[in-house]
Write a structure and sequence with these properties.
By secondary structure, the chain is mostly beta strands. The protein has one domain (1-162): Leucine-rich repeat, LRR (right-handed beta-alpha superhelix), CATH 3.80.10.10. The chain contains 3 helices and 12 strands. The strands form 2 sheets. The chain has a 10-stranded mixed sheet, with no helix packed on it. A two-stranded parallel sheet has the order 6-8.
Amino acid sequence: MRLCLQDKDKLLYEPQIRLHDARSVDVGFIVVEVPDLANGKDCILGDAGATLDCSDGRLTSLPANLLSPATTTILFGKNRLTSIPTAELATAPNLEVLDLTSNMISSITNDSFSTSRNLTTLYLDLNFALQEIEVGAFQHLQKLTKLSLKMTDLSTISPHLFDPLRSLEVLSFGFANITKPAPNLFAALTSAVEVEIASCGDVSTAIARQSLGLANLSRLEHLYVYAGA
């Protein structure tokens, strides 16, 4: 895998969303031990059960017994998932925010998010084993407004991968090993306000606008292009 990083410290995982420090929060919280999954690592249920934080737990599976229809946020970065936990996510049908940053996910299938139709925010960065995303992987995410997908091992993606994401407003995407992206790859993102592109190649802002289909996105306000996929 080729990584275009100028600073190795960028590989360090930082949670995309942080649960408030329980010691300084007045609302109730529950610390749940899951030693069978995480060698003693605690998960935290906060916001009256709306947020599950199992970040940095070395977990190999998502503890579905801690999820419910009340769950709206799952913070599961820096764990050991090898696939999207579709069945477990079904127990949280009202989930809006999912952080799977820095796991070991190798592929995303057409059904991976079939039980997560209310997602608005999805983080998939730093899944270095990710080599395949099926063309219909995002077909169930029509409410998604923010997607971050950088630092993976993708070498090719379907030219229609992003077509279902008509509500997407913010996209961060790293090309990494993708040297010849499909023309008009982002043309269907008609709601996009901000697009961030990380590339190993010499992709200028002007080239990105024209070749990737961004030129005609009338709502686009911010386009960032830089080296480091």
